[in-house]
């Protein structure tokens, strides 16, 4: 059974789900949802997901959204013995903790910090320093943990790595250097991008397209001021 994935390529959460599925050898049937045309608010999609957010999956009639819930569902159902989402309760709890930390701290703060570049035409020097401080604190915690282990939840790659890696890629979209001063984070990120055979296939083109879109929006907003 092929699982329908409703997605938009540039979205880090969508790309995290796609990487998890690739890693677990789960086939997805990709269905692009055009946000620019408002397809996520059309009747057919609202019937599927009344919260009209992406990614969303439909697995033989079972509909689920929120990327981290989707990733853990896929692992639980189709790869219950995979170390990507370990069965040991303590190891799994660490993965779950980092997934939630990523959602509420890393991804959220990066998005809120960098959004004014696209939305308001601001440059990096004009961004909210308080939001920037929160990101630096999170990256320092991540950097310290990677000083004593190879991956974010231990010494084996897990769903947490894929989720955090996708979240950090949001900074690339804005051409904002966020991790180069955190040696362990940079080494981990570079290693995953190099070693994951599916990373470039899933991420390169969407990041490039999103980067061009952000630049065009930023230029428009700057010129209109």
Automatic annotation (TrEMBL):
GST C-terminal domain segment(s): 88-210
Entries under Gene3D superfamilies matching the protein: 1.20.1050.10, Glutaredoxin
PROSITE patterns with a match to the protein in the record: GST_CTER, GST_NTER
GO biological process, alphabetically ordered: glutathione metabolic process
A GO molecular-function descriptor: glutathione transferase activity
Top-level taxon in the UniProt lineage: Eukaryota
Residue span(s) of domain GST N-terminal: 1-82
Pfam family, one: GST_C
Signal sequence coordinates: none
Family named by the database record: Belongs to the GST superfamily.
Subunit structure: Homodimer.
Name of protein: Glutathione transferase
Organism: Oppiella nova
